[in-house]
Amino acid sequence: MVTENDIWGYLEEVADPEIPVLTVVDLGVIRAVKLENDQCFITITPTYSGCPAMKMIEEQIIEKLNEKGIPNVSVDLILAPAWTTDWISESGKAKLLEYGIAPPENEVDKSVLFSEPTVVPCPKCGSRNTRMISLFGSTACKAHYQCNECLEPYDYFKCLK
Amino acid sequence: MNSLFEYVLRLGDDSLILGHRLSEWCGHGPILEEDIAMTNISLDLVGQATSLLGYAGELEGKGRDADALAFLRFDREYKNVLLVEQPNGDFGMTMLRQFFFDSFRKPLFEKLQHSTDQHLAAIAEKSLKETKYHLKHSSEWVIRLGDGTEESNARIQESLNTLWRYTNELFFTDEVDNELVEKGIVPSLQEIQIEWNATVTAVLTEATLTIPTNNWKQEGGRKGLHSEHLGYILAELQYMQRAYPNMQW
Ligand SMILES: [Zn+2]
Questions:
Q1: Separation CA A90–CA A24 (nearest Å)
Q2: Which end is more exposed in chain B, N or C (fewer Cβ atoms within 10 Å of the end residue's Cβ)?
Q3: CB B226 within 8 A of CB B82
Q4: Any idea which fold B3-243 has?
Q5: Do B125 and A82 touch (CB under 8 A)?
Q6: Mind listing the domains of chain A with CATH numbers?
């Protein structure tokens, strides 16, 4: 008999399509798992409104659960409460760093105007002497930084809250 | 009239048309970083448009989904403000147009996230987080270009002289707004305009730019009366669905 806990375990095997080092559980986009008779209901929420990975995440979840012998899976997308980077798990943040992406810093929500860019330590050498190259990186969820010490260019997973 | 449908449609069309305009920069940005930034912002806006138009379709209750509303209407049925359909011009003009829009959307979403309409509140809460990044990006460019070289200052001042006449329409109010404000579902746009004025004045002053004194204001988009530019946008935006009806991506 499959339990909801088992399902959470299976979802740990579904990787985020854009940052494959993270699972969808690490990323915090799985909001609920519900089993009713032989029907499995998964609720997900997007990181960004236009995140092109959501459709793929949905399909991968269905594929993975089918593979685990759960044939009836429905995935529902909700917008509220809105996703925040606080929902990335601690192990997820460690995996990001290991992968070379600086995890979200715990920024306070400064007034958006006239504020200095966040100090983001280099994931390669740990130096805090770094600079922001661009507020928008390879995907909407990332900014682009460079280390002034070791010159490593890297992505920063922007704080969203 | 279904006021909430009309209201959400207006928000959705603003996002859709501006998102499309920004996407025209794809592969043409002045530097790689800005090419990526503009297409990222475009993606956020098109994502917001999908949520908003999807909800508008539900409110209308005639079986139209986000795609049907985005791709299968005629120009008079689009309710976006004229500002968002204005041509990109140079990079400075695009940033200034974006700045005017972001300065409007941020306070609007801040209020709408507490709307008594839960679906609209959810979309606003989600979109607000993205809009803050957009505003930070666009306002910094307006300052950098305005307070930059003689050339960059002159060019963005000219863009300001051109775009200023379209800004007032952001606060266009009619019976749609009045009904919803009265019911406490949406904020009054006069309230939003006070914040908009404060942001715009602060940034344009920092950018050493001069707000035009010519107060001629152009409006019409909210009523479906557009500039000729919208037709060209729609020709491209709708091409696939018009040429191959019901095609799936
Ligand atoms: Zn380094």
A1: 14
A2: C
A3: yes
A4: Ferritin (1.20.1260)
A5: yes
A6: 4-83 (3.30.300.130), 88-157 (no CATH)
